[in-house]
Amino acid sequence: MITGASRGIGAATARVLAGRGFRVAVNYRASAPEAEEVVAAITSAGGDAVAIRADVTVPEEIAAMADDIAQRWGGVDVLVHNALIPFAVTSFADLTWEQLGGKVNAELHAAYMLTKAVVPAMISRGYGRLIFLSTGLSRRPRDGMIALGTAKAALDQFVRYVALELAPHGITANLVAPATVGGTAVTGQLTPERVRELGAEAPMGRLVTPDEVALAIAFLASEDSGFTTGHYLPVNGGLAMD
């Protein structure tokens, strides 16, 4: 199950995982044509995929999506939570509590509900991979990104607690934290000049691509990552080195 998989990182992840033999549920909220294009590309290459509409902020729709996958394929072995929940780009001076509190609440509520929807069956099978998209902004602030950075920082800690509790059940939970990714909804909110500046800041001199993020996700989705849990994996071309 890949949330927000009709474009950008989600679509790239769907293609990469399908190419490695995963059956992929391409979740979308409003971009049906784009989601169907992702599915068509996967199936034409010999993979197995289905597009499923669900708003990850609505509990009933998450439950229906999980039930659909369970009936179709027997359940979810890998959850990739990539869907972007809208946020305000603003300074603290202009930030309202509704903008900050609303983003934090929506971010954690979606992660909580998705995890609750898939974990019981993972526990019963003794296997599962939970992968959540974070951002370097959760650790290193940037002007205007206070709502996103704060919400993702809360997500980071939520995932660590989930990882701790689920480790004895053979379930891993990890975070992938790309720097600014080219061709995504976030870069769409920035001016072309600012996008160029962000690319130039990285030692590699460019933005991250969706495919590069997808390849990091693919490792965490694989059996090879079975002893890797509770980690924050940056994909940033050396922009931040911890």
From TrEMBL:
This is SDR family oxidoreductase. The keyword tRNA-binding does not apply. It comes from Mycobacterium alsense. It holds the Pfam family adh_short_C2. SUPFAM superfamilies: NAD(P)-binding Rossmann-fold domains. Belongs to the short-chain dehydrogenases/reductases (SDR) family. One of its GO terms (molecular function) is oxidoreductase activity. Keywords: Oxidoreductase.
